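REQUEST FORM: STRUCTURE PREDICTION
Request ID: SP-0412
Submitted by: Lab K.M.
Chain count: 1
Length (residues): 373
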Amino acid sequence: MLFADRPGAVPAEDGIAHFGDPVREQRLLAAGEAVVPRDDRAVIEVSGPDRLSWLDSITSQALAALPAGQATELLVLDPHGRVEHAAGVLDDGASTWLIADAGDAAGLAKWLTMMRFRSRVEVRVRDDLAVLGYTELETAEKRVALVAYRPNDLPLVWGDPWRDVTAGGWQYAATSAHPGAAYTWIEAIVERSALPQLADVEPAGLLAAEALRIAAWRPRWSREVDERAIPHEFDWLRTAVHLDKGCYRGQETVAKVHNLGHPPRRLTLLHLDGSDSVLPAPGTPVLQAGTEGEAAEVGHITSSARHHELGPIALAVLARRVPPDATLEIRADGARIAAAQEVIVPADAGATAEVPRLTRLSRRPLAQPPAQA
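STATUS: Completed
RESULT:
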């Protein structure tokens, strides 16, 4: 039985929203006891002997010497340093596998194909492969690892690097207790033909996955990125940008904004008043009360969810000038929702800010499946 055929499955535009009880599913997912079918994610295979050095030269990440089985992520920037594409990265020794948001996969694959020139690489979207998400705990991990795709003797299991500041990265969030440290998110690539083997695995929907992501302050291409986005605004230098690598498109802006500080906008977590049971949709304006009682638009919601412990929360992109203690309000469906900030990217973010540089490295090796009895 496929996940979409499970009793209670409620479809959404980009996959299965939930299976009847989003809060229960979220708790099971956090406990490592449920699996999310990530129909909102897609897989791109990059093959050929030049694949890693080529990807290194055109993206924000240092990939030339990426060991097989080591998970990381990359960004593709335009000449002005704005984010165009994003993907998780995993190499198995013969091919490099990119996991991207489904809405970005075709565009990313097209751009990569156009950039091949004389490089010995091939790019293709693998529609025969699916992505499953879960947290790094035994129950779900062991079951999925048994069916993970392994074209070159390594299971394609990508551990999200967001849990730590990776080599060459820089954290802007002024905290030593980053919620990302507990975000042990994993995405496994599985052949679609193997999905029926997971018929008895506990499912969770995309709403559950989004709630855990938002609580971890984790940015995403399909939600946080717009035509103005630069990686500094989302603290994406933690894991997706290598500040010590060679030239690539957009590097000048990355270096300039980082060295001078003060990115034009900043990501923040909003704790929302849940009195009206209204959850603002992405794109909803965020308002700040003025000195004379009038509210001015200072940003917008990018993602929102009901977290099983934190309640209604949202990620929002705000203008740098908005004070951390400002009174904020969101108006949605006739409700006026008060919002309190939990600062992710400080207004003075950059190399000169009074924020300790965190250099804890945690490269998660490719998970090996348990031996079959």
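NOTES: The chain has seven helices and 17 strands.
Reviewed by: T.R.
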